[in-house]
Design a protein that fits this description.
The protein has a four-stranded antiparallel sheet with strand order 2-3-1-4. A hairpin with a 2-residue loop joins strand 2 and strand 3. With 216 residues, it is α+β, with helices and mostly antiparallel strands. It is globular, with a radius of gyration of 22 Å. Helix content is 52%, strand content 14%. The protein starts with a helix and ends with a strand. It folds into two domains: 118 residues, no CATH class; 60 residues, Alpha-Beta Plaits (2-Layer Sandwich). It contains seven helices and four strands, in the order H-H-H-H-H-H-E-E-E-H-E. About 5% of the residues have low confidence.
């Protein structure tokens, strides 16, 4: 057994893959271009969070790495599809465009593993289209505002996943959305006072609380 381990270690080669580093550096750059263009043009509250910046940086890299690994192995690709299918996006999105932006980051990472030029062209196309939408009368229409700021009142949002139903009558907070699924309650709550949000989380029993996130 020990000899087998020595053989494996002797055949193991560890080195820096400069092609991987360069292509993913470009991935991150393209994603950040999309992130900051969207942030500067539309100033939506949800995109200003530190979490969104981390998503823009790491999601394309993850997509690139997964695509590279499974591209030459059918069995591994099928297994990866099965593994990824159990991942559920439970945090409520503040805007439908937020979810679209996540898919854009994934597209950059996946496309870069095949053809980096396509990712560059896609980024340029995105910047052009998003700029045209922003500066056209079409996007400013009250009847069809694509980029409506859902958090222009500077409220603090709490996304909750708990086992038992929550009573908000004793809190100065407003229920935005609620859903019961798979024997769990999903709430989005907002308040102008972050102390109220923190108090809600603090007073939830530890056995009842599954997960939560706060967006300021």
């Amino acid at each position: 057994m020990l000899d087998d381990i020595k053989i494996v270690l002797s055949e193991l080669t560890i080195g820096i893959d400069f092609e991987f580093l360069i292509e993913n550096a470009l991935n991150v750059f393209l994603s950040l271009v999309i992130y900051f263009v969207t942030r500067i043009l539309f100033k939506e509250k949800w995109i200003f969070s530190y979490t969104q910046l981390l998503v823009a940086i790491f999601l394309p890299i993850v997509a690139y790495l997964i695509t590279t690994i499974i591209s030459s192995n059918i069995a591994l690709s099928l297994g990866m599809i099965g593994a990824l299918s159990i991942i559920r996006f439970r945090t409520p999105v503040k805007s439908p465009f937020e979810l679209v932006l996540y898919f854009i980051y994934l597209t950059i990472g996946i496309t870069s593993s095949v053809n980096i030029n396509l990712s560059i062209n896609f980024t340029v196309l995105y910047v052009v289209l998003i700029s045209l939408l922003k500066f056209s009368n079409f996007s400013e229409s009250d009847n069809f505002n694509l980029f409506n700021n859902l958090n222009d009142d500077n409220s603090v949002y709490l996304n909750l996943e708990i086992k038992n139903k929550l009573d908000l009558t004793s809190y100065k907070a407003q229920l935005v959305t609620s859903k019961y699924y798979d024997e769990k309650y999903f709430y989005t709550i907002k308040s102008s006072d972050i102390n109220v949000i923190e108090q809600i989380v603090k007073e939830i029993d530890g056995n009842n609380l599954i997960s939560y996130s706060i967006d300021v």
